[in-house]
Amino acid sequence: MVEKVYDGVSPGLESRINKERGYGEITVTGMFAMASALQLDQESIFYDLGSGLGKLVLFAALTCNVRRAVGHEISERRHVSAVAALAHIDSEHHPGISETVCFKQADFTQEDYTDATHVYLASLLYTDDTLVKVCDKLCASPGLKAVLSIRELPLGNPLLRKLPTQKQVSVRCSWDVERATSATLYWASHTE
Ligand SMILES: C[S@@+](CC[C@H](N)C(=O)[O-])C[C@H]1O[C@@H](n2cnc3c(N)ncnc32)[C@H](O)[C@@H]1O
């Protein structure tokens, strides 16, 4: 379903540019692993910070029926593709999808996500400074339950006191078809 709504949205040229610029994304198998690890449900307010083409955001909305699914993406081209894919979703079969999903072209280090309950960070290439900024912002999210990040979050950051429990989760991503990528799940122990 998620891949289908991208028919005609991300054509050959986009794929080639993405390959050349090193764009990578979570695979559908990885999406299921992500959703299971984060325990996304109908109460979840899910953020994908660095949402690329928006596939994971649409997956969270369509497959996990989250309350809200938000993607922040800095690249205009990818953001436009995400918005186009959302427009391809049949709102008769998925009523409310346009209210559930929000794509924003933005630098997520400058944004507000105080309503987030669950966050995914495809942080492979994010700098230390970016991760610190995100963590500092997430500290101010009162309902935050879990974060899944490909790069480990900075040691000593106050967010780790809020989400003190950790485990490794395998997620399949397009940049390594041979092996799963290891991500770290951080969660508040009372949600175990
Ligand atoms: C590895 S891709 C992951 C896409 C998607 N989340 C997934 O897992 O399939 C990371 C994306 O983060 C975006 N990005 C990097 N830094 C960002 C920032 N500060 N604000 C918003 N997006 C950013 C990149 O442009 C890229 O599209």
Topology (SSEs and partners):
Layout: H1 12-21, H2 28-38, E1 45-49, H3 55-63, E2 68-73, H4 76-88, H5 97-100, E3 101-105, E4 118-121, H6 128-138, E5 146-149, H7 159-162, E6 165-171, E7 181-187
Parallel strand pairs: 1-2, 1-4, 2-3, 4-5
Antiparallel strand pairs: 5-7, 6-7
The chain binds S-adenosylmethionine.
Task: Please describe what this structure looks like.
- This protein is an alpha/beta fold.
- The chain has a single domain, classed as Vaccinia Virus protein VP39 (Rossmann fold, 3-Layer(aba) Sandwich), CATH 3.40.50.
- 32% of the residues lie in helices and 20% in strands.
- It has a 7-stranded mixed beta sheet with strand order 3-2-1-4-5-7-6.
- Helix 3 links the parallel strand 1 and strand 2.
- The two termini are 31 Å apart.
- The model has no long low-confidence stretch (mean pLDDT 92).
- The site of S-adenosylmethionine (SAM) has 21 residues, from helix 3 and strand 2.
Which keywords apply here?
Rossmann fold, binds S-adenosylmethionine, 7 helices, DOT1 domain-containing protein, 192 residues, alpha/beta, seven-stranded mixed sheet
